[in-house]
Amino acid sequence: TVFTYETAGSSFGELSLMYGKPRAATVQATSRGQLWAINRVAFRACMLKRNSHIDMVAILKKVEILQSLTIPQLQRLSDCMAEESHKSGANILKQGEHGESIYIV
User: Fold this and answer.
1) Are 12 and 2 contacting, i.e. CB atoms less than 8 angstroms apart?
2) How far is CA 46 from CA 7, 78, 94, in A?
């Protein structure tokens, strides 16, 4: 079976990412073009997020240092965030370390 993907917003490959199964088809470009790709780790992280996008924006609006940001800016920030889990007693950061992240409880 041959499928043609010509419409913006068409997608393929998601079943393999969702269910961890081998690819069910081969996709071949018949002309020059561009497409967006998202890897398995990022896809699964987005699908497994506990809070909805709207809930996360509401949480970010409560963070004092972020209150001057617009809703679109908060949405973009929300898209970049990743949930972390830590065991009781684990050091999340240490005094004197170079800062690489902001943490929101």
Assistant:
1) no
2) 24, 11, 28
Q: At what angle do helices 53-61 and 71-80 cross, to 10 degrees?
A: 110
Phi then psi dihedrals of residue 9, to 5 deg:
100, -10
- Taking CA atoms, 57 is separated from 32, 45, 73, 94, 101, in Å, by 38, 17, 9, 28, 18
pLDDT in tens, 23-65: 888 888 888 877 888 877 777 777 666 555 668 888 888 998 8
Report helix, strand or coil for 33. coil
Threshold 0.85, pTM exceeds: no
